Amino acid sequence: MTQIDPTPHLLPRHIAIIMDGNGRWAQRRGLPRIEGHRRGVKSVREIVETCADLGIEQLTLYCLSSENWKRPEAELSRLMSLLEQYLIEDRSTIMRQGLRFAAIGRREGLTPGVIKELNRTLELSRNNTGMRLCLALNYGARSEIADAAKAIAEKVAAGELQPSEINEEVFAQHLYTADMPDPDLLIRTAGEMRLSNYLLWQISYAELWVTEKCWPEFRKPDLMQALRAFASRDRRFGGLKVS
Length: 243
Ligand code: IPE
Ligand code: IPE
Ligand code: MG
Description:
Blueprint: E1 14-18, H1 22-28, H2 33-54, E2 58-62, H3 73-89, H4 91-96, E3 100-104, H5 112-124, E4 132-136, H6 141-157, H7 168-172, E5 185-188, E6 207-210, H8 220-231
Parallel strand pairs: 1-2, 1-5, 2-4, 3-4, 5-6
Helix pairs in contact: 1-2, 2-3, 3-5
The chain binds 3-methylbut-3-enyl trihydrogen diphosphate (IPE) (2 copies) and magnesium ion.
């Protein structure tokens, strides 16, 4: 591992994280899975604060996928309570840190309590100018892409858009992430080498970094390690190495 500290121009603008391994972390300790989710909130706090301090422009956290509804009802309802509690408890911290809050994904399925607290934080933080903290909730990249295609088709049918005008920029503007920069760095905890339907359009050129550590044990030193790895990558975007 190199010891260089990430210098500002080598920092990612946007970091996206697949926070995985909460259940395994708990089960290995003989604890119920929900304990892993609860401990995961501590990691969220530390990573949000560190990214904001470093001047990262956006942090997008995968909190619940559209496929996670396959889980037992009891785990889902505890996850909803935990999320609602986080939104209430961390609102003052989010405001103190000047974070701009955002959420991507479908609202259906989220409890009324979660939607209410989400809307409150969105409303309160809308004029903040600090890091954008984006939570992916009931998020699935394929449905996001399908939704964008539907919205574009409706505009074409209404005569507001010509098929010849559809290009990558227009398409991107119809995704949930319209006006957000694409992630430069994608971190996944708990070792799986897959994307699990996360930001498939947006991560085309993101650098991937996977750690064996489970999310509840992922803390500032781990993030710094990922940032050092990112700083040493040679991003070519299909071109040639700049020497
Ligand atoms: C990630 O941890 C959190 C969510 C998907 C909500 P998991 O709950 O997937 O933990 P593992 O992968 O089963 O260990
Ligand atoms: C991805 O983790 C979703 C979140 C972290 C919210 P999963 O645990 O759902 O992913 P798979 O099932 O291992 O692909
Ligand atoms: Mg998992």
